[in-house]
User: Fold this.
Amino acid sequence: MISEWSAAAGRTFRALRGASMTYGLIALCCLIFALGPASGIVPGYGTGYVLQDAQRVYFRTWGVVPAELFAGPLTHALTPVTALFVHGNWVHLLGNMLFLLVFGVLTEERMGRVEFTLFYVGCGYLALLGYAVANDTSEQSLVGASGAISAVLGAFLFLFPRARVTSLLPFLFFLPLRFPAWVVLPFWVTLQWLAAGRSVQGPGVAYLAHLVGFGAGFVYAWVRFGRGDRVKCAPEPAPEGENQP
Assistant:
């Protein structure tokens, strides 16, 4: 029994050490959210309309406002980076962090800490930038790590196509079923594509940012690693939640 506990502790320590940036990004996003007005934890932001005004100012300051990104000062060019660490509510945060945890650990172990971090921020920037270009007259702020996490999903699909993940399908009464990544992730991309096509009234859920991020992540992994470096065997299975980044 003791030997089994020791082996389990060793595996956990190696996973934490090998994917330190994934856990670091999750911790940073959670900390920023907890200290911001959207969490409702800090009493200094007030309540009611005062809190709502504080949230609007907060999102507009640190989020991407497409109309201001190209017409405002150069400092606005940094907002696609700051927006990656800001989330609108608890569901938004927890859904994104769950996907990052599930798919980020193995992707980071494959890329390495530094490369994974640059990949995450760079692809996230491109995803939000692509959305802003397509909605360049929008005054609504865009926040969240969805574009960067979508890039992680794209890279994961290329690097670990046979990895089996557990998905909850609503049309099957949310029964947990396990499918390989090459089935789950293209299905997810198809849903994003269909949703983006129906999103004709401008910003809401940034489905286009999801698509841009996913495509950027997949292409990066394809160019960087090539077919010879793909992982043929399935890694350890990991649970996947129903929330979409």
